[in-house]
Amino acid sequence: MYSAAAGGSTGLTVEPSKLLASGPNGASLIRWGSLVDMFGYLSLAPVVVYLRDRYASGRYVDLFAAAGLAVVIIGSIGAASMATAAPPMITDYVAASPAQRQALLPAFATLYRAVVLGLWQTLETIPAAVWLLGTASAARREGPRTIFLTLLLIGLLNAVIALYRLTAGG
């Protein structure tokens, strides 16, 4: 929904200035998209607990589950922050004077970068990779091959995103 609000994007992020200028439609997309994200993150908690119980005999499974719950917390905090802070800024931007717009842009860009780049694409991807790859190692020994491969692939993707954000910045 962020991409739709900004008029489309092919990368991991969209340009904050485009989101800020997206008007009431964009504000609504950001609000609803962020609320959907928040509930999506919260719905991961039962999955984390289930996988922890399913592979309870695996080594370090409690550590991996804690990392999974960290993903839930980090992601939902970011989504709640965007749902509550971004839409009013977008709405205010439409009616703002040129001077006020100049002041809103860096504030909105900071919010966007802190949540999207900082929380979701950097901080969250580290425990996500630990949770998914660690649980994949337990699933490899005890579970169906499809579960192992799914956890492995998503875990590797998160590890790559974390590494990219930590080294290249973005």
Walkthrough of the structure:
With 170 residues, this protein is mainly alpha-helical. It has one domain (2-167). 85% of the residues lie in helices and 0% in strands. It has seven helices and no strands. Helix 4 runs antiparallel to helix 6 (125-142), helix 5 (98-123) crosses helix 7 and helix 6 (125-142) packs antiparallel against helix 7 (145-167).
Order of helices and strands: HHHHHHH
Question: How helical, in percent, are the residues?
Answer: over 70%
The number of helical runs is: 7
Report the β-strand fraction as a percent range: under 5%
Note poorly predicted spans. Answer: none
Anisotropy-based shape = elongated
Alpha-carbon Rg, integer: 18 Å
Class from helix and strand fractions: mainly alpha
For the termini, the CA-CA separation is 20 Å
Return the average pLDDT rounded to an integer: 89
Structure summary, number of beta strands? 0
